[in-house]
User: Which sequence fits this backbone?
């Protein structure tokens, strides 16, 4: 099952890459709308499949924003 899900994840990622590449080419408005819709669908499917395959996601806490230094020595 894991191997199948990993293969599906790869397929979605490949499709997303292909659609992004196509968006960098000359397209009619209708073609662009179609590809943008497919890109959105693939991204959503990838996110759903990824969250099902890897239900526990470890996230890093946000890094604190440090004040900018002026370069002057104290």
Assistant:
């Amino acid at each position: 099952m894991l191997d199948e899900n990993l293969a599906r994840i790869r397929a979605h990622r490949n499709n997303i890459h292909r659609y992004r590449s196509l968006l960098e080419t000359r397209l009619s408005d209708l073609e662009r709308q179609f590809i943008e819709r497919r890109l959105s669908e693939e991204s959503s499917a990838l996110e759903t499949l990824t969250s099902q395959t890897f239900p526990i996601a470890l996230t890093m806490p946000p890094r604190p924003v440090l004040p900018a230094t002026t370069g002057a020595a104290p």
Residues 2-51 form one domain. Helices lie at 2-23, 29-53.
